[in-house]
């Protein structure tokens, strides 16, 4: 067996409920993780990127019943949609976990046994509110009435009164250790505003948590008591360690990848990840993850996205309409990561045409066509470089990688893209200022230098945009004659990997078409 000496990076998405078809919100979270996974792989990390589906619980059981299917049959069908979306969006996940798999039952039983052994669980009975939509218990103080007189949780989900025997987790005893953990790990919860919310919640005091149910049966059986199934959130959260071979902790993937570097989640499920999960783990004698990032919420043209409003954005349709790279770029560029965002067709069209077709696409197209026409379709040989013009642009291009590393390590995707675009704009400015088309007769050697500098700048850009826009970037790298082995970030820092003058280039073709949408004026 070869042991990798590369640093590791373990990133996870939430596992999605299979009660519904995947929509843009699910695609968004997984996209963010995909971009990070691709970035880290190109940067030499040994990456594990996990996504999957959450298939137990009352909500899924109810949906199966509504579809007149047995829950297993239903989850088999709907889980496929999430695999399909991963394929269509170009996600590079290394594993896809389903909580109905045997490996997961084994891991859930093992974490339960550890909690039991450590005296973290006791049998009692639960009487209180439960929201099936959120699969969450709520305190009396959190409940209000909506305009129809129904009782609702702060999330807006309707709650029902539940009374049943239940095992409890001694969450109330973890307040101090959780606060200490947040204190010692200031970047455990990002963004900062969300961290503060979690800290206030924990400071207000924690109740013991009901972690088993007896009134329905679609779940993982509690190992010591067959009348109970495990609470779906304890079951679901455990997926992050199931996928790396838990309960084996000493060797193999768990030893290599745990603690996870990042659990990416939406703000709706932060409490489960930043309070319950680290408490479960610490109580089971396991390490908490290194970071939970809670991103914001997408609305559609100003409205909440919901099936009942009929405004669910289907990512398949979006990709068909605008192209994969355009959708990937838009989602991460439009909104500062962490904030809420509003989807609009006009906005995606503007970005696809303005920033992709005009700024980036045109830059590449202009330069590659000039090389094809004026340099015999070969990488031109540069002459003497001028410090303030040529070296300035190359300097800006090579300075990008450390800037991007910094932004990616805080999940600031929009800032990473802005940094890349500042170089795209600088390169376009350089084309206009140098006007290489005017140098053909007058000073061909200078023209060669200018085109070489631009080609080198595009090489940097295309390598660095691969995580965001894999198709167009790889297309550009093909057009620059860059072999597959020279597309990692190592090729940016290694001077020997610079474009070799004389290399024959293929016929250039545009990578970002201008989009016309008849429905948008
Ligand atoms: O909560 N905007 O699954 P879920 C942005 N199974 N992101 C959105 C979104 C929107 N409008 N809608 C959904 C569950 N999301 C549990 C998770 S993890 C151990 C168990 C994304 O299918 C966002 O990431 O309801 C959110 O947290 C997640 O989908 C909820 O997916």
Structure, briefly:
By secondary structure, this protein is α/β, with parallel strands linked by helices.
Describe the structure.
The chain is α/β, with parallel strands linked by helices and 521 residues long. The protein has a domain at 346-519: Isoleucyl-tRNA Synthetase, Domain 1 (Orthogonal Bundle). The protein is 47% helix and 16% strand. It has 19 helices and 18 strands. The protein has helices at residues 24-42, 58-66, 71-88, 102-117, 175-184, 192-203, 232-237, 239-242, 252-257, 270-283, 315-322, 324-333, 345-374, 387-409, 413-434, 439-442, 444-465, 470-479, 490-493; strands at 8-17, 46-54, 95-98, 121-131, 136-138, 144-145, 151-152, 160-169, 189-190, 209-210, 212-213, 221-222, 225-230, 262-266, 292-295, 298-300, 303-304, 341-343. Strands 3-2-1-14-15-9 form a 6-stranded parallel β-sheet, sandwiched between helices. Strands 5-4-8-10 form a 4-stranded antiparallel β-sheet, with no helix packed on it. The chain has a 3-stranded antiparallel β-sheet with strand order 11-13-12. A hairpin with a 4-residue loop joins strand 4 and strand 5. Helix 2 (58-66) packs across helix 3 (71-88). The longest helix has 30 residues, at 345-374. The protein is elongated, with a radius of gyration of 26 Å. The relative contact order is 0.11. The model has no long low-confidence stretch (mean pLDDT 95). The structure holds ligand ME8. Ligand ME8 binds at residues 14-17, 25-26, 28-29, 54, 236-237, 239, 265-266, 268-269, 297-298, 305.
């Amino acid at each position: 067996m070869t042991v990798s000496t590369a640093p590791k990076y373990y990133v996870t998405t939430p596992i999605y409920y299979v009660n519904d078809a995947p929509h843009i919100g699910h695609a968004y979270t997984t996209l963010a993780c995909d971009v990070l996974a691709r970035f880290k792989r190109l940067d030499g990390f040994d990456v594990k990127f996990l996504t999957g589906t959450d298939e137990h619980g009352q909500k899924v059981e109810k949906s199966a019943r509504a579809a007149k299917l047995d829950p297993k049959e239903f989850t088999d069908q709907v889980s496929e949609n999430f695999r399909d979306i991963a394929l269509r969006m170009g996600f590079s996940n290394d594993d896809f976990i389903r909580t109905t798999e045997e490996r997961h039952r084994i891991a859930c039983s093992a974490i339960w046994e550890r909690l039991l052994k450590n005296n973290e669980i006791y049998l009692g009975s639960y009487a209180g509110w439960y929201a099936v939509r959120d699969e969450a218990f709520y305190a009396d103080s959190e409940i209000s009435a909506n305009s129809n007189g129904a009782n609702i949780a702060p999330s807006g989900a309707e709650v029902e009164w539940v009374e049943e025997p239940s095992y409890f987790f001694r969450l109330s005893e973890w307040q101090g250790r959780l606060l200490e953990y947040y204190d010692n790990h200031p970047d455990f919860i990002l963004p900062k505003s969300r961290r503060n919310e979690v800290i206030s919640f924990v400071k207000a005091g924690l109740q013991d948590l009901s972690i088993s149910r007896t009134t329905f049966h679609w779940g993982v059986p509690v190992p010591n008591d067959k009348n109970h199934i495990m609470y779906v959130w304890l079951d679901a959260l455990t997926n992050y360690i199931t996928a790396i071979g838990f309960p084996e902790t000493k060797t193999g993937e768990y030893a290599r990848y745990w603690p996870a570097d990042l659990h990416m989640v939406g703000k709706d499920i932060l409490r489960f990840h930043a309070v319950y999960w680290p408490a479960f783990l610490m109580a089971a004698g396991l390490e908490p993850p290194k970071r939970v990032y809670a991103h914001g919420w997408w609305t559609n043209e100003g409205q909440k996205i919901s099936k009942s409003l009929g405004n669910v954005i289907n990512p398949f349709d979006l990709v068909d309409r605008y192209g994969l790279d355009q959708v990937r770029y838009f989602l991460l560029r439009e909104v500062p990561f962490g904030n809420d965002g509003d989807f609009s067709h006009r906005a995606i069209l503007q970005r696809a045409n303005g920033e992709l077709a005009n700024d980036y696409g045109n830059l590449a197209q202009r330069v590659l066509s000039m090389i094809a026409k004026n340099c015999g379709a070969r990488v031109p040989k540069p002459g003497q470089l001028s410090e303030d013009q040529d070296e300035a642009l190359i300097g800006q291009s090579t300075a990008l990688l450390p800037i991007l590393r910094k932004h990616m390590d805080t999940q600031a995707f929009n800032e990473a893209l802005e940094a890349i675009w500042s170089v795209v704009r600088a390169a376009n400015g350089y084309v206009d200022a140098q006007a290489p088309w005017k140098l053909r007769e007058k000073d061909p050697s200078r023209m060669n230098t200018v085109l070489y500098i631009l080609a080198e700048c595009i090489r940097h850009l295309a390598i660095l945009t691969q995580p965001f826009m894999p198709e167009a970037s790889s297309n550009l790298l093909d057009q620059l004659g860059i072999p597959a082995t020279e597309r990692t970030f190592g090729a940016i820092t290694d001077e020997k990997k610079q474009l070799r003058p004389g290399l024959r280039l293929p016929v250039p073709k545009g990578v970002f078409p201008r989009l016309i949408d008849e429905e948008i004026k």
